[in-house]
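Summary for the steering committee. The consortium agreed at its last meeting that each partner would contribute one worked example illustrating the joint modelling workflow. Our contribution is presented below. We chose a case with several input lines so that the handling of multiple components could be demonstrated. No manual editing was applied between input and output; the record is shown as generated.
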Amino acid sequence: MSRPDSLPNAVRDTFRRDQVFSPLRSGVRPVQPGELDARGKYILYMEEITVSFDGFKALNDLTLYIEPGELRCIIGPNGAGKSTMMDVITGKTRPDHGTCYFGQTLDLTRLSETDIATAGIGRKFQKPTVFPEHTALENLELAMAGPKGPWQALLAPITGEQRDWMASTLDTVGLLAERDRPAGALSHGQKQWLEIAMVLMQKPRLLLVDEPIAGMTRQEVERTGELLQSLAGEHSVMVVEHDMEFIRSIANTVTVLHQGSVLAEGRMQDVQNDAKVIEVYLGENVES
Amino acid sequence: MRHSDLKTALTDRAAKVFIGVLFSAVILVALLNLLVPVDSALHVSSYTVTLLGKYLCYALLALALDLVWGFGGILSLGHGAFFALGGYAMGMYLMRQIGDRGVYGNPNLPDFMVFLNWKELPWYWQASDHFGLTLLLVGLAPGLLAFVFGWLAFRSRVTGVYLSIITQALTYALMLAFFRNEFGFGGNNGLTDFKDILGFSLQADSTRVALLIATALALAGAFVLCRWITGSRLGRVTLAVRDGESRARFLGYRTEHYKLWIFTLSAVLAGIAGALYVPQVGIINPGEFSPLNSIELVVWVAVGGRATLYGAVIGAILVNYGKTVFTGVMPEAWLFALGGLFVAVTVFLPQGLVGLASDLLKRKRRTPPTAPQTTNKESPHEPA
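What follows is the complete predicted structure of the assembly.
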């Protein structure tokens, strides 16, 4: 109270974009710093993002919004900027300009990869990157949301509740029987699922899923589609995929990227019939 | 998956076997040295007692390196620096214990300071009058250096071969510094001519045996501590950082904190090894900082087998025994033998002797035709 800077801070707080007249919003718990504020219409706001590597614009004025609970498919030819977009969201790549907000308050262009993961964005990579020498269960333990410091890791034991949660998540992806096998010994499809389970253990609000069905058999593809659809609703899910048939089977809303910006966005049928889209991307598939 | 606490780390089979073998050997040697008359064939000489003590110090140092290299994936080529710092901290205490029995008979200053015409004891020697403070310094000096060094290196995401090179530079820089007389640690000659520790003469057989037992206790304690850590979630996260650091970062781990934690602990263990080494060999000089020592240390761990803890201990004892024998027979060939050993292990035994032994065991278990149904379970590493 008596700190000399408390008055200017109070003034500044009053004029913060996200907190105007916050004293009047009775009954609403204020959002803590670093916590997700998902009360807006969208959960992810990407506006006018540009990223260039040595003059090549990987993303060019990209604007994209994701709603809470939405399942969004992102398609586009190679080099369209899909991976770069994921890198920007997860903090791996910093945009040259543009804004990227998670919820109302979290500026993803400033947070570290670790902070972004903790805030609730989980990413499944294109290449399955499980820890090969850890068992399936240990992989989930590593991914589990909770305190992540060395001291807690040494001293805090795993509770029975957490054990149950890990087991049920393994069950969700159908890997309960493989719980004690080293992850490196799992099949390619199983690794993909294990990684999805790992992302789920982070209790994410937004899941980024990069090419989930690469190398899967037909049955595995079907199960993956069901899995992703069951996850939407509780989580927002962004899926990047090449396989048009798969996209058709799961997609509500599709965004087509081309040369680093959004070419078209909408329902699958509409996007498929869009002349521009057919020209740059779908054409090859439609003809074949 | 298990979450080990200290109790399970103390009572699991590996710890029991390790502690059992270690203490049987040490107690046997101690008894044969103290109780059997000198002219008996069964008598173990004091030289052997000290030699064994030296090997156990090296084993503790190797254990410390295995923790950062085998489990953390941080190849430190400068771990000898932490060993030497612990050694110097102990050496300073032993210097102060000489009192006025030095060549110059000065009760207030060690000989080399009298020789350099110094008038009073530098501030950083003040703690060395007390044994308790010395023990603190033994852990603090290497620990603090490792913490600051690691904080700068890991925060800047220096990894792999670059990190190895700067650890090497660190120990080399310290060696040059300790060679200088004005640095205040005896320069070229280092610290030597020690008389006694806690009032017991360092030449007495009983003191040598006591030091051997203290070393064995430290080694056993460190082994249990490392088992505990590597069996806990901390250990599993450390392995994850080793196998996929950026992946671990995306899972929300501050990987640099884990590396720093394990690097600092390892440096403290190395310092303790150094502190036990110095009273047994009777000298510490800047040569201990030599990069060659740190590289030899890496060879011990590689020969024994990484990421098993006991492999490092076995490697350290075997290679040093080999060195003792070899340098007696043809000293000039030792470095070639060491280099050849390292190449051979890297090419033919990437898992070290321990890995070779467990491979042979597995193969032996697999061959009996009476139990073909186990073969499936035996090879979980084959991709399905």
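Chain B touches chain A through 30 residues (CB under 8 Å). Residues 6-368 of chain B form one domain.
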